Amino acid sequence: EWIYRAWFKFPKLEFAVIVSIVAVIAARGFLEGIVAGTVAMIVLFVISYSRVNVVKHALSGASYHSRVTRSYQQQALLRARGDQLYILQLQGFIFFGTGARLFEQLRARMRQPGQVALRFVALDFAQVSGVDSTALLSFAKIVGLAREQGVVLVLTGLAPQLQRQVSRSGLADQPGVVQIFAQLDYGVEWCENQLVAGEQ
Description:
By secondary structure, the chain is an alpha/beta fold. It has helices at 2-9, 12-27, 30-50, 72-81, 96-110, 135-149, 160-169, 184-198; strands at 55-60, 85-94, 120-131, 152-156, 178-181. A five-stranded mixed β-sheet has the order 1-2-3-4-5, with helices on both faces. The longest helix is centred in the first third of the chain and has 21 residues, at 30-50. The mean pLDDT is 86.
């Protein structure tokens, strides 16, 4: 009777887990059913959380600027060349599922036909609560993609613990590919300086 009522209360995937738990308990025992249910719920959680978008804002250097005061000519140049800078403000907890989605989003943007070729990608971690060690594999792939596309990866807002993770993984030791700044504003300012210098 309880299982019948559960059909109307729970999402179908969760209901399937409930039925499987009951089946395992009936066939193997209570403890085995609890273990099977725990494993199933962990898998469901990972699948659900991997669908969460860790990108809070996707911005262009044409619309987002540093707080540096620049001349009218430089401002005009940055508006014209700003699309060469792609800024992603990240949020939440990043693990292998969300890290893989981030990689796919960056790859799609870098290889998108008809779009301005990127020179810089800024990833802001100021609102990231943590990064799983498995997510660092996705970041290693992002660094490889940046090197392949001739893009400089600018990492900003890294918390001390995350900065240690990045340093231990060797991702920071990529001259000409990875730049690290304390705040997004400093990273964007550096990118703007490169864009301005390249046009002078």
